[in-house]
């Protein structure tokens, strides 16, 4: 472990002697003690970010992109080590730890191209001799508050875009995963050193819990707050940022569903269901939590799933072949077990779901399938664990109504070979989620698309498409190159 730490620049002075204990979900053992950022330091940190902003906004965007290109290079060089640290600190299996770093590399590539594409529109003016256009400008410090389950990727989605858009970044990672954050900052520092003349304080890291986050959320000098985590957190953060007319990008909980129609390719559906329901031990915001299956195939599908679930290797996420690692901690396992009790009390039949001995000290569970007679209260909650609730339907209309009848609106999908069903699901009367797929599970989004969801998921968008606009301010410009001063709407005001 010490070798891994030192290969990422995490020297003992950084990982020992602090007040924040870091535990590995693999065996619950303490792996580091990190110094926390005193809340009293936050005003100075924010002031440094403001100073950095004044310099960075003047750097041409393609040059800003060069920093992100270097970050991508450094991430490529450190991929194996950072991926291994994600596994150690967040408990992801090896390929998912590496996949998370790959996502960081992908967003860097995307943002480098974007740095030459921050474009506005030219709009027809009603006045002769006038040109109207819109331009996009940097906004200022962007706070990134991130969750434990994507300990580094979420930072990179925000940081790569914020930097090319001309904004400094202050990152507050989850208090459960500060080590991967510190390692990512070391990688960033290498990119900054190679870049040469970036302003001091352009990318900063603060360590701690909600109080440190709240210092960012409450500051007028932090115009953008991108917060990823539970809906409970978003309900606190969103109104606080709104109160000061700041901009928030909220990426909150999901309760993602798959509709399986009679025409579906069931073998393909089973593969998609298993990956999205049990991958990352059900701890993705996009994990599949609800299966809405046509009555005619329900029994068949549940039997196939039960067979697939029976053979899933659960255990040490570092071991080759393991598909299900630990939950983040014992509290998370307790929440899963109590959700299953509630499912039973609400009429469900539960298969699996027992706590298992993976590695001593870790919280390992068998993934569960809960056959429900309807969408009861527990099904509408996001339990951050591998529970798959199964419900039946008769008509597509009914299935879509069930899919939409939860507070969250992140990701959704339908398995069907029927074009009318697929298109209806994607139409205005279909899924109400930010992400809707056909013949693909709800998790594992690509960087090129905008990522985020509606309703209690918070409404924010990150990553691809035009999500960059969330990190810039829009300005409408009208230029008069005539010798007259005509007023809009034909108003006369002669003096
Ligand atoms: P969490 O809400 O407990 O914590 C998330 C972050 O918010 C942490 O950094 C935490 O310190 C901070 N925080 C908590 N209260 C705060 C406050 N009052 N002010 C400022 N910061 C505060 O979430 P978690 O358990 O780490 O992560 C799991 C949750 O995150 C799930 O609900 C999951 O769906 C969600 N998530 C969503 C997305 C998405 O893109 N929609 C991605 C990943 C995770």
From TrEMBL:
Family under the similarity heading: Belongs to the aldehyde dehydrogenase family.
Organism: Cereibacter changlensis JA139
Domain of life from the UniProt record: Bacteria
Active-site residues, Swiss-Prot/TrEMBL: 251
MF (Gene Ontology): aldehyde dehydrogenase (NAD+) activity
Subunit structure: Homotetramer.
SUPFAM superfamilies: ALDH-like
InterPro entries, sorted: Ald_DH/histidinol_DH, Ald_DH_C, Ald_DH_CS_GLU, Ald_DH_N, Aldehyde_DH_dom, ALDH7A1-like
Domain Aldehyde dehydrogenase: 18-476
Pfam families: Aldedh
Enzyme Commission number: 1.2.1.3
Keyword Oxidoreductase set for record: yes
Entry keywords, A to Z: NAD, Oxidoreductase
Protein name: aldehyde dehydrogenase (NAD(+))
């Amino acid at each position: 472990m010490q070798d891994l730490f030192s290969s990422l620049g995490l020297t003992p002075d950084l990982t020992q002697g602090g007040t924040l204990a870091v535990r590995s979900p693999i065996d619950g053992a303490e792996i580091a003690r990190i110094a926390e950022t005193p809340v009293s330091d936050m005003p100075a940190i924010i002031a440094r970010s403001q100073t950095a902003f004044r310099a960075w906004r003047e750097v041409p965007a393609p040059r800003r992109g060069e920093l992100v290109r270097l970050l991508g290079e450094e991430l490529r060089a450190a991929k194996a080590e950072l991926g291994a640290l994600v596994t150690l600190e967040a408990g992801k299996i090896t390929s998912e730890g590496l996949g998370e770093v790959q996502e960081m590399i992908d967003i860097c590539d995307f943002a480098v191209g974007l740095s030459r594409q921050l474009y506005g529109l030219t709009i027809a003016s009603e006045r002769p001799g006038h040109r109207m256009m819109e331009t996009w400008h940097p906004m200022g410090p962007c706070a990134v508050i991130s969750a434990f389950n994507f300990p580094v990727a979420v930072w990179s989605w925000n940081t790569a875009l914020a930097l090319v858009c001309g904004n400094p970044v202050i990152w507050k990672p989850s208090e459960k995963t500060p080590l991967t954050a510190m390692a990512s900052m070391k990688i960033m520092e290498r990119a900054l050193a190679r870049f040469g003349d970036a302003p001091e304080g352009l990318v900063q890291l603060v360590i701690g819990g909600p109080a440190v986050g709240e210092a960012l959320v409450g500051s007028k000098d932090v115009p953008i707050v991108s917060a990823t985590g539970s809906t409970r957190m978003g309900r606190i953060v969103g109104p606080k940022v709104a109160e000061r007319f700041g901009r928030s990008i909220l990426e909150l909980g999901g309760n993602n569903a798959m509709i399986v129609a009679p025409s579906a390719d069931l073998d393909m559906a089973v593969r998609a269901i298993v990956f999205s329901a049990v991958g990352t031990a059900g701890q993705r915001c996009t994990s599949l939590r609800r299966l809405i299956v046509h009555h005619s195939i329900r029994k068949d599908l549940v039997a196939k799933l039960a067979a697939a679930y029976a053979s899933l290797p659960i255990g040490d996420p570092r071991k080759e072949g393991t598909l299900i690692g630990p939950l983040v901690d014992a509290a998370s396992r307790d929440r899963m077990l109590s959700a299953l009790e509630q499912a039973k009390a609400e009429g469900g039949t539960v298969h699996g779901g027992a706590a298992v001995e993976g590695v001593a000290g870790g919280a390992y569970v068998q993934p569960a399938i809960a056959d429900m007679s309807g969408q009861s209260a527990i099904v509408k909650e996001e339990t951050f664990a591998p529970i798959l609730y199964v419900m039946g339907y008769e008509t597509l209309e009914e299935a879509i109504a069930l899919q939409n009848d939860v507070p969250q609106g992140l990701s959704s999908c339908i398995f069907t070979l029927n074009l009318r069903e697929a298109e209806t699901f994607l139409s205005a009367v279909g899924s109400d989620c930010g992400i809707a797929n056909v013949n693909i599970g709800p998790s594992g989004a690509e960087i090129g698309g905008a990522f985020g969801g509606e309703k209690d998921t918070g409404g924010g968008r990150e990553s691809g498409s035009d999500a960059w606009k969330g990190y810039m301010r829009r300005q409408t410009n009208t230029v008069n190159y005539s010798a007259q001063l005509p007023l809009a709407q034909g108003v006369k005001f002669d003096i």
